[in-house]
Design brief:
Elements: E1 8-11, H1 15-24, E2 30-33, H2 37-46, E3 63-65, H3 68-72, E4 77-80, H4 87-95, E5 104-106, H5 119-126, E6 132-136, H6 141-145, E7 150-156, H7 159-169, E8 174-179, H8 182-204, H9 209-229, H10 240-251, H11 256-265, H12 270-275, H13 282-297, H14 302-313, H15 317-326
Parallel strand pairs: 1-2, 1-4, 2-3, 4-5, 5-6, 7-8
Antiparallel strand pairs: 6-7
Bound molecules: 1,4-dihydronicotinamide adenine dinucleotide and 1,3-dihydroxyacetonephosphate (13P).
């Protein structure tokens, strides 16, 4: 059956927004909005985005603009890839331009600090009535742009719409699965960033492979416990959006969240690390609302708690790690 040509608007000219726009541009007319006019011009005219994706060549089919209305008003599908703390403001700006019923797909992996909401909850408040989804999984932008094989998940509650949109994102060696557990898929992508900070801290402190494996395995148990309490399905957390993304982010030197943890473990201050990065590490800000949500629900989250203490209360990474190792170990099925 012939498919109708869908026009795609992508918001966010950082590393992931640009990468996804570049992928989608291979199979649908796509326009990318970057709020920085120089970035938009560079993508449109020179087909590169040196600040966020140094050395990468982008598709000539990808258009770019610094005018959000131009990217949104003709879009049949809208993809939003700005960092989580800019999501609400972006959705508010979208409201005057978006057509009714246009599906909105979030790429962001974080929680709003003031409200603790997931990104599709924030978008749903500002853009009611639009079908919502997330594209999430173990997907480091640099590897995807280099054409390396990867798998991802498009998660939406409506199984008809998700099957229709799946084809937009898949192609080449980028394999896209569907999932109707929007909540669980979105939670996995946001929660793993905090565990990646913990894994990076361990590596920075010189922990061994056994320690890392123990941390990752206890992280997936903790992610599942909290994620299920927050409304996700248990099996989702052992899939690509949970375990898959946890492995990539906790082990790759390309991960910004792991890098923050690694540098903390090496003894640098958080302020210094953040000041030296020109990209977002969502887990730093997300650790606050995640810790608060777990506390409010009475869920034991020892790893999240130690990251929260390091990031928000100035605890040293070595005492955080010692704290985790000294906890009494009970049954493997129990928290801790
Ligand atoms: N880079 C990656 O490999 C992946 C990133 N993600 C997620 O994608 C989201 C975006 O991250 P990246 O593109 O990596 O970040 P980035 O740090 O590379 O770029 C962020 C971009 O957003 C723009 N921006 C920041 N605040 C904004 C606002 N209020 N309004 C409009 N634009 C704003 C910046 O100017 C910049 O262009 C994050 O939630 C991240 O966790 C998800 C999967 C992979
Ligand atoms: O989400 C990602 C990989 O799936 C990117 O991780 P970082 O934000 O830590 O770089």
């Amino acid at each position: 059956m012939a498919h109708r040509v869908l026009r795609i608007g992508v918001l966010g000219g950082g590393s992931w927004g640009t990468t996804v726009a570049n992928l989608v541009a291979a199979r649908a007319p796509t326009i990318l909005w970057a709020r920085d006019a120089a970035v938009a011009r560079e993508i449109a005219e020179r087909h590169s985005n040196e600040r966020y994706l140094p050395g990468a060549r982008l598709s000539k089919a990808l258009r770019a603009t610094a005018d959000i209305g131009e990217a949104v008003s003709n879009a049949d599908v809208l993809v939003i890839g700005v960092p989580s703390q800019g999501m609400r403001q972006t959705a508010i700006e979208v409201r005057r331009h978006i057509r009714p019923w246009v599906p909105v797909i979030s790429l962001a992996k974080g929680f709003e600090t003031d409200t603790g909401l997931r990104m599709t909850q924030v978008i749903g408040q500002e853009l009611p009535g639009h079908p919502l989804g997330v594209l999430t999984g173990p997907n480091l932008a640099g590897e995807i742009l280099a054409g390396m094989a990867a798998a991802s998940v498009l998660a939406m509650e409506d199984e008809v719409i998700v099957a229709e949109l799946q084809r937009l994102f898949r192609g080449g060696l980028f394999r896209v699965y569907t999932n109707t557990d929007l909540t669980g898929s979105e939670l996995g992508g946001a929660l793993k960033n905090v565990f990646a900070i913990a894994a990076g801290m361990g590596d920075g402190l010189g922990a061994g492979f056994n320690t890392r494996s123990a941390l990752l395995t206890r992280s997936i148990a903790e992610m599942t416990r909290l994620g299920v309490a927050l409304g996700g399905r248990p099996e989702t957390f052992t899939g690509l959006t949970g375990l898959g993304d946890l492995i990539t982010t906790c082990t790759s030197p390309l991960s910004r969240n792991r890098t923050v943890g690694f540098e903390l473990g090496k003894g640098r201050s958080l302020q210094d690390i953040i000041a030296g990065m020109n990209q977002v590490a969502e887990g730093v800000k997300s650790s606050g609302p995640i810790y608060q949500a777990a506390k409010a629900l009475g869920i034991e989250v020892p790893i999240i708690t130690e990251v929260y203490r390091v990031v928000h209360e100035g605890r040293s990474p070595s005492s955080a790690f010692r704290g985790l190792l000294r906890r009494g170990a009970g049954s493997e099925a129990e928290p801790g």
